[in-house]
Amino acid sequence: MPAVIDYYYTPISGFAYLGEPRLRALAAEAGATIFYRPVDIARVFAAAETTPPARQSAARLSYRREDMARRAAAAGLPLNPEPAFWPVDPGLAARVIAAAALGDADPGVVSFALLKAVWAEDRNLADPQQVAAVLGAAGVGVDLLDAAGRPEAAAAVAANTEAAIAAGVFGSPTYVVAGARFWGQDRLDDLARALAAGLA
User: Fold this and answer.
1) Is this model's pTM higher than 0.85 or not?
2) Does residue 91 contact residue 127 with C-beta atoms inside 8 Å?
């Protein structure tokens, strides 16, 4: 039976942005299915008593920017390590991804377009007009914005959040396979090895 990767994250996560292309590649190689599970990251942080990145010390934030720049260069991804609209309320973007997963749109395409919008294009994901522009540029119908306003999308994000908390998720991105947690895009090679060995 093909492995399932539960991908818990927030669509304003820089490390989710850096890891998503690699995640998709390793899942395809392993024949695994990715379930995109955007969460209410504030609730996840609160449940795990995690300090949100934007409220960490100046030293940690400066290291974060350095580290992200190195990893973006290694991955060949464009990056502004100090985006104009970070952090912002990710709720709309999370509901858009959830709506894609519930409907006919590819949640992977939607997810990466939104992540890239924050970290490479200085877009504000709390602004519906900017989200619509991102969806249009990605070739995805802007009707996802309407779907994101329906109760089903909000319920999906709430369910993802509860599942993440139950699984012991404390940060974004976290990949869970058969109960095994892999936190951060720098653990994707570990995830790939586990999938190859059939251990996860």
Assistant:
1) yes
2) no
